[in-house]
Amino acid sequence: MTPLILNQMTTKKILIIIIGVIITGCTQLPNLGKGYKLIRDGNSDIVIINSRNAFVVEGVILNYNFDSVFILVEQKPKNLILKDVLYKPENDYPTIEKIFNKSRFRQYWIINKVIDSVYGPYPKAEYLKKCKNLKVPEGLKLEFGS
Q: How far is the C-alpha of 97 from the C-alpha of 75, rounded, in Å?
């Protein structure tokens, strides 16, 4: 009878440890303000939704920055990158992921939270021009990687 009690207690301790690791290991995505949020969709991609729970920027968000007025976004759009390969029977999931991961294609977005307007998608050069036209503050930038 004693071994059964020890096993139940051990199982509870292990379960508590696992739950603790899961909770502390999860990162909290920031609220972007004025009803805009970063969320993880069903594919573990990070997307932006608005207060009406409508997708604003889908795909994979690689980089973002925000202040009280603007949200700037660098996106890697799955639907455009994979449109020619997604539904071909010869392409299995690992092949599709490999193609997506190799792609260097990026799009850029600007969201004005105050007037609830979304600008984009833009290639990098057009995005930078639009930032100037919209008077996005100089200090609010995306850190461009490769």
A: 16
Structure tokens at 11: 């199982």
* Per-residue model confidence (pLDDT) at position 54: 85
DSSP string for residues in 70-128: EEEEEEE-HHHHSTTTTT-TT--HHHHHHHHHH----EEEEEETTTTEEEEEE-HHHHH
Q: What are phi and psi of 78, to 5 degrees?
A: -60, -45
Alpha-carbon distances, residue 69 vs 28, 54, 94 (angstroms) = 22, 19, 40
The pTM of this model reads 0.76
Contacts of 36 (CB under 8 A, 6+ apart): 48, 49, 50, 51, 56, 66, 71, 111, 113
Digit-coded pLDDT (tens) for 16-44: 444 433 333 345 678 899 999 998 877 66
